[in-house]
Design goal:
Keywords: Signal. This protein is of the alpha+beta class. Helix content is 17%, strand content 33%. Strands 5, 6, 7, 8, 9 and 11 form a six-stranded antiparallel sheet that branches. A five-stranded mixed sheet has the order 10-15-14-13-12, with no helix packed on it. Strand 2 and strand 3 form a beta hairpin.
């Protein structure tokens, strides 16, 4: 693994902000749009500089500057409603109920791995804004199925959020993310974020298998780095659909650098507050707004579907 650069300073920057929430009435004092535009322009420049830096030290030093500026931007009154829609290196997902949003991004490391960063910005009922830093602890994670907090986050860059409503309970949110990995394999993850006493919790025992196995808290896929993998929410069938990964040959089982899609699809169907595994999902390629994601795996004339 790569050597960490100034992790303590990053923690301090985030926690200082989390300790000082802002009230909604402050947002009405002035129009912060021009100020937020300036913040965004600066954040774009710094994020590009960090991502393209030639080595770990320069990369993570620049990232520390980026984090400090992002924290200052998110402290600005009315920042919760600012979209940051030009900040391309950062994925920003808004909860459909507008209760929070999550920022995630990554940096490549010299050894071919990745380090992930993020924060949860939460709008509370009393009008205060809170930030919860996401501290990537992947390199110290011994159990990928463990439920974690924001302080020992199983890092990923999330690109899709799916709310799941349970009768009589607070909703939880499924997160689909790209995790990268190393020079041989890539990973994707289906994780869950929920809130307990207004604190973010990652992982939840909602992923049910087919053969009576204990429910899992998160799902991690690993496959050959030169290949790609579909993992997306198909709203019209209420399923999270993904490529079925298999080794190139049976003797390569368990060696994930030799895994790729076998052109079949599995899914997790959302039902009764749980995600239930469904194997060999048949996907019809009828004309609709999801066509870019799907193709019939049995149709040899169909080109490969778009991989996320």
């Amino acid at each position: 693994m790569y050597k960490r650069i100034k992790p303590l300073s990053i923690l301090i920057l985030f926690f200082c902000v989390a300790a000082g929430p802002l009230k909604a009435q402050q947002r009405l004092e002035f129009n912060s749009g021009p100020l937020m535009d300036k913040y965004q322009d600066s954040l774009i420049a710094i994020s590009e500089s960090a991502f393209k830096a030639p080595n770990n030290r320069d990369r993570f030093d620049q990232n520390a500057v980026f984090i400090k500026m992002l924290v200052n931007a998110l402290k600005t009154p009315s920042s919760f409603s600012y979209p940051f829609d030009s900040l391309n290196r950062v994925a920003i997902l808004n909860a459909p109920d507008k209760s929070f949003r999550i920022f995630t991004w990554y940096l490549p490391a010299d050894d071919g791995g990745y380090r992930f960063f993020g924060t949860v910005q939460m709008a509370t009922k009393d009008g205060k804004l809170k930030l919860y830093p996401l501290i990537d602890q992947t390199e110290f994670t011994t159990d990928v199925n463990a439920v974690t907090t924001n302080k020992n986050w199983y890092g990923a860059k999330y690109y899709e959020i799916v709310p799941v409503v349970q009768t009589g309970k607070l909703p939880y949110y499924v997160l689909l993310g790209w995790k990268g990995n190393n020079t041989k394999t890539s990973k994707k993850v289906i994780d869950v974020i929920s809130f307990e006493n207004d604190q973010p919790v990652f992982g939840k025992a909602v992923f049910e298998g087919l053969r009576g196995e204990p429910a899992k808290n998160r799902i991690v896929f690993e496959y050959n780095k030169l290949n790609s993998m579909t993992l997306t929410m198909a709203k019209q069938i209420n399923m999270i659909v993904f490529d079925h990964l298999a080794p190139f040959t049976p003797d390569m089982a368990g060696k994930f650098e030799y895994y790729a899609s076998d052109l079949s699809f599995d899914a997790y169907k959302i039902a009764a507050g749980k995600l239930k595994l469904v194997e060999n999902v048949e996907l019809k390629n009828d004309p609709n707004n999801m066509d870019e994601f799907y193709a019939d795996p049995k149709d040899k004339k169909t080109k490969a579907i778009k991989k996320l």
